[in-house]
Amino acid sequence: xxxxxxxxxxxxxxxxxxxxxxxxxxxxxxxxxxxxxxxxxxxxxxxxxxxxxxxxxxxxxxxxxxxxxxxxxxxxxxxxxxxxxxxxxxxxxxxxxxxxxxxxxxxxxxxxxxxxxxxxxxxxxxxxxxxxxxxxxxxxxxxxxxxxxxxxxxxxxxxxxxxxxxxxxxxxxxxxxxxxxxxxxxxxxxxxxxxxxxxxxxxxxxxxxxxxxxxxxxxxxxxxxxxxxxxxxxxxxxxxxxxxxxxxxxxxxxxxxxxxxxxx
Length: 264
Prior knowledge:
Layout: E1 8-12, H1 14-17, H2 20-33, E2 37-41, H3 44-53, E3 59-61, E4 64-66, H4 69-93, E5 98-102, E6 109-113, E7 117-119, E8 122-124, E9 130-135, H5 138-145, E10 149-153, E11 155-157, E12 163-165, H6 168-178, E13 183-187, E14 193-194, E15 203-204, E16 206-207, H7 209-218, H8 225-237, E17 243-246, E18 258-260
Parallel strand pairs: 1-2, 1-13, 2-10, 5-10, 13-17, 16-18
Antiparallel strand pairs: 3-4, 6-9, 7-8, 11-12, 14-15, 17-18
Helix pairs in contact: 2-4, 3-4, 6-8
GO molecular function, one term: ATP binding
Function: Catalyzes the ATP-dependent phosphorylation of N-acetyl-L-glutamate.
InterPro entries: AceGlu_kinase-like_sf, AcgluKinase_fam, ArgB, Asp/Glu/Uridylate_kinase, Glu/AcGlu_kinase
């Protein structure tokens, strides 16, 4: 591991984490990066699947999960449990010495409970959903310094030790800023940002923050890609020098996927 290459933060979506083939591709890429790497993951599809198996239909408002007591238990079982453990196990097969942690471990990510918000005229209480108020990267520094690759589940704690479900894109952003990361890579099922999500030939190799805003307004940046690109814009504005959206098998190749950058 060469610290001079700078730290890479990789955010892995739950859908990608559910695919053994995609995970294997990801870890092969991580093994070639050379510098320190931190992987942050969600687990939305897995949490939805387990909730439904328990007879509970999750509620999603404006792309965000309302986290009841049961939803929090599901998030803990899935994200801090099965998804995190399976990612660590998958890493071993590629020779990556990974360690599973959560945002709650070592006071890594501090949060407060999200207050109720008015959305489309309705006041929504998101329950056990946390908003990030601070990051203490000491734990990650210790693990990286010892040659480990941290795999961070986006379950975090407040000052009283209460646990919260936190958006994984947001956790990845905050860790990238706190660690002074050289790059933030958002791994998606698609190979990057497409003007037509169903057509791989419409892949866009470079997007500016202004183009993202225009795409949101025009409606072609929507669904799960919209929050990713909003995180990308904020990361650039807060000093992360390189942000990319790419596929699991292209993490180490800056010429593939979509680079988010200001106008040259």
